[in-house]
Request: fold
Amino acid sequence: MEQPNQTYINSLSGGDKVFKQKLIDVIKKEFPEEKQVYFDNYNAKNFKLAADNVHKLKHKISILGLEESYEVAVAYEENLLERNSNLKEDFEAILNNITKYLETL
Reply:
């Protein structure tokens, strides 16, 4: 599985360490909250809302340089809109991967 990285964050920050840290702090704050809302909606079988949550989360996936994972999230979002849970395990493995990575920052 590909690993999260700060390549895009470094590009966005342009070497500004304070701005880079602010971006990381926002991700570290928002990601767990958005992840929990996704799980709540999925477990409640609110697939449309879960798809909306995946849509939000895929931006974090992209910012963390996970190109293949982003494609999985796109496909999973579409599946959820069709009430199809294919790719659920793959998507949730991505979430776990990001969670572990953010704990190291």
Notes: The domain at 15-103 is CATH 1.20.120 (Four Helix Bundle (Hemerythrin (Met), subunit A)).
